[in-house]
Amino acid sequence: MKILRASARKTNRAPESNFTGTVFSDEVVAGAAPSRMRASVVSFTPGARTARHSHPVGQTLFCLSGSGRVQREGEPVREIQPGDTAIIPPDVRHWHGAAPDKLFSHLAMSELTPTRARAPRGSSMAGKLKQHQGLPIKACIRCAARRVVTAPVLAAMPNRG
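Above: the chain sequence. Below: its structure as tokens.
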């Protein structure tokens, strides 16, 4: 058994490139192989939110405090309150954040990609086979070259162009 002490982790300000407003993140766990679990407590100031994004195997948000908002692309904005759980399916574009006049914190849970590798945004990897850690990979067109997938996963995906 391993205990990760809160005092050993620092609070990080979330990058402006992925969020609107002031957002802080406290990593709870980033699993070591074979686990791919990642969980963080994310705290939003009033009106702050994520940019639209998706996760290859979905994301689960457990509301800890305050008043939050979540929106699946093309659907109405929905409110979430402490104790509520939002389950976002794989590859669904969405955003989440605080109500305009309330603080909001949630536990965000998702899985890391198999290699944990990410291609830089706008990279020339999009649509091209490359080698990464000895494995053939291809940037996922759906995510605008932000993540890579291994060849067996790629073979199972419908043709992306």
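The helical segments are 151-156.
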